[in-house]
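Students often ask why we bother encoding 3D structure as a string. The short answer is that it lets us treat folding as translation between two languages. Here is a chain of 121 residues written in the first language.
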Amino acid sequence: MKRTVLPRREAVLDVYILILGAMLLLSPWVMAVARGPARADAWVSGAVIVALSAAALLLFAEWEEWIVVACGAWLVASPWLLGFVHTSAMRIDVGVGLLVMYLAALELWLIHYEPTDAPKS
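And here it is in the second language, the structure alphabet:
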């Protein structure tokens, strides 16, 4: 008997995170970010997020989602740590970072949440 592998219900969140990472990776060109630290941060963070979410789509591991949450937290804090506050790059990093953290945390919650059938009255 042949077994079919069903996709994880949370996999769509990895696709969304992958798209956000790709947008972040392309943001220095699209938004014409000229500052070195902001540009490098977008490239490196975007590449890491894209690689992790692609890996999660191919072969899921929970630790990948925790690293994505940490990358999102880094994106939120990086404008202040790298000194590009009050720029368009800051708004992009903070916005993408918050969305990535939310989606990865939602996926972690869905992994551990097992819905139960509602009691019939």
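Translate back mentally: The two ends are 39 Å apart (CA to CA). Keep this in mind for the problem set.
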